[in-house]
Design a protein that fits this description.
Radius of gyration: 16 Å
CATH topology: Elongation Factor Tu (Ef-tu), domain 3
Helix content: under 10%
Structural class: mainly beta
Distance between the termini: 35 Å
Strand order of the largest sheet: 1-2-7-6-3-8
Number of domains: 1
Order of helices and strands: EEEEEEEE
CATH architecture: Beta Barrel
CATH class: Mainly Beta
Number of strands: 8
Oligomer: single chain
Largest sheet: 6 strands, antiparallel, barrel
């Protein structure tokens, strides 16, 4: 197994949010994150067919301002918490800074925009994938 092999990930769109600075973003969406728009690249417009207002989706983002060298953190940035490996936390600083965000679609707009909430990602964050939240019936 070769851990030096690299793979390419291409954004499908970008977050448009009032959050411009990491210090202003909540740790989790449920902690007061605002609504935001997801602007999908026109090449992928057909890929969002079937996503409607009211849909719950999982956004996968590339946390482009994260420190990829971090391996351990004090959870919740609290030095009173003992160090843990980043893979045991939701810390944004990690070797592959993939963000996972469960959001609700509030509105869809042309040509390919989704208004979602709550989203703690910063303005300009690349979106790398969207997946539906599956109910128990699926």
């Amino acid at each position: 197994m070769n851990t030096t092999t690299t793979y390419s990930i291409r954004p499908i769109g970008f977050v448009r949010s009032q959050l411009a600075d990491k210090k202003d973003a909540p740790d989790q969406g449920s902690e007061g994150a605002p609504e935001a728009w997801i602007e999908i690249d026109k090449e992928f417009t057909k890929a969002i067919d079937g996503i409607f207002s009211g849909s719950e989706i999982i956004l996968l983002t590339w946390l482009h301002q994260s420190d990829r060298s971090v391996l351990q953190v004090h959870p919740r940035n609290n030095p009173d918490n003992p160090l843990k490996g980043v893979f045991a936390t939701r810390a944004p600083d990690r070797p592959n800074p993939i963000g996972l965000h469960r959001v609700q679609v509030l509105e869809t707009a042309e040509p390919a925009r989704l208004k979602v909430s709550p989203l703690e990602a910063l303005d300009g964050t690349p979106v790398i994938d969207i997946k539906p939240v599956l109910s128990n019936q699926h």
